[in-house]
Amino acid sequence: MNRFPAPPSRFHRIRRLPPYVFAEVNEMKARARAAGRDIIDLGMGNPDAPTPSHIVDKLIETVRNPRTHRYSTSRGIPGLRRALAGYYERRFGVRLDPEREVCVTLGSKEGLANLAQAITAPGDTILVPNPSYPIHPYGFIIAGAAIRHVPLAPGVDLIRELARAAEHSVPPPTAMILNFPSNPTALTADRSFYREAVAFARRQGMFILSDIAYAEIYFEEPPPSILEVPGAFEVAVEFSSLSKTYSMPGWRIGFAAGNPDLIAALARIKSYLDYGAFTPVQVAATAALNGPQDCVEEARRRYRERRDILVDGLARAGWPIPVPAATMFCWAPLPERFRGMGSLAFAKLLLEEAEVAVSPGIGFGEYGEGFVRMALVENRQRLRQAVRNIRQFLARHGAVERPQRAPSARVTQG
Questions:
Q1: 83: Cβ–Cβ under 8 A, 6 or more apart, which residues?
Q2: What is the DSSP letter of 122?
Q3: Which CATH number do you get for residue 134?
Q4: Taking 80 as the threshold, does the pLDDT of residue 21 lie above it?
Q5: Would you call the peptide bond into 122 cis, given omega within 30 degrees of 0 as the criterion?
Q6: Are residues 176 and 117 in the same domain?
Q7: Where does residue 370 rank: exposed (0-12), middle (13-18), buried (19+ CB within 10 A)?
Q8: How many other C-beta atoms are found inside a 10 Å radius of the C-beta of residue 17?
Q9: What number is the average pLDDT over the span 94-113?
């Protein structure tokens, strides 16, 4: 009997997943830190601020009750589902039925992946804007779907591109992904875009999975919800997370809201896979949504300050990049001098010579090539140091550019 583990290439679902592009930069970063080098990490979007104290206090209070140590419920405790519905009514003016139209998830990533498993048959076609957060295409790829990648960039008419992709898809697409404010591009969408998207989905007979994990990290107009649009409940479900809004990434609490059939499908498959998040975590999440919200405004202020330090500093250093209107990311085109080498090689060079880690755009899809993503997860002093390091790096390579007008940070519609 062969006692050695089978190589990953033998497993069909694993073969459909490409090598993890970010792993190369992460390994370089780890080696550099092991050698004692001070790496400023703008790679992973991992909030550095502590979870607000009133949320932590509620967790501690609740965990002292041994009754909360038992199995929870996979679709979320009733109090948290009611709190999520209350958030939607306050923030978006949208009324949700906590019993039929809300499901708690272990972060938005788990929710997206499990809904993909619930609604996808092998060979189904899914429309996914590209570049995108990896779970958006790969949750469906793991479920056996075929992905049609649709280019997403400033000035691109996304609805027209989605329609073109649908027209040339066999079989016709069964669902599409939307993510605004976008990770990684930081593009935003308005209600008129969502109206077109809902009308398009209804004509095509497809579902929409909308990801609004960054809806509360904004610096201009508050981003809308697709569920504000008439008819959206017929076709759309929306995912969000407490990770960025309340600096709770490790707590793994998110939710899905919207179309009751999709919510029921998600709840059904979750009932076979998990017992839900630890009850004290759900109680603390309820306190986050129902409690004081000044911590959310403080998070916006913090990310705005960091955005301005990085964007203004890079512009003065000779690397002008677009100013994001939302999210905790800057999506930066490579300086002209380095565009020929590609985003992965540039990220590795920047790490080696400037001691600044960023995420290569190619890791977010083929249309992400030529960009890097910078996460605003270091404090102001560290960001200023990153700008100084990058300025010296650009000067050494003769790569200083003249400031240019940044493209629109909002997705367009026809």
A1: 285, 286, 289, 290
A2: T
A3: 3.40.640.10
A4: no
A5: no
A6: yes
A7: middle
A8: 13
A9: 95
DSSP codes of every residue in 124-144: -EEEEEES--THHHHHHHHTT
Q: Give the domain range for residue 121.
A: 53-290
The pTM of the full predicted model, rounded to 2 decimals, is: 0.91
Residue from 247, 359, 382 nearest 310 by CA:
382
Residue 254 · residue 111 · CB < 8 Å: yes
- Per-residue pLDDT reduced to its tens digit, 336-375: 999 999 999 999 999 999 999 999 999 999 999 999 999 9
88 and 169 assigned to the same domain: yes
Counted residue by residue, the chain has a size of 414
Rounded to an integer, what distance in angstroms lies between the CA atom of residue 94 and that of residue 181?
19
Which stretch of DSSP H or E encloses residue 238? strand 236-241
The C-alpha angle 380, 382, 387, rounded to 5 degrees, equals 95
Q: What pLDDT, in 10s, does the model give residues 48-74?
A: 999 999 999 999 999 999 999 999 999
Strand partners, 268: none
Give the dihedral of Cα atoms 153, 166, 180, 122; nearest 10 deg.
-120
User: What are 384-411's pLDDT values in tens digits?
Assistant: 999 999 999 999 998 777 655 455 566 6
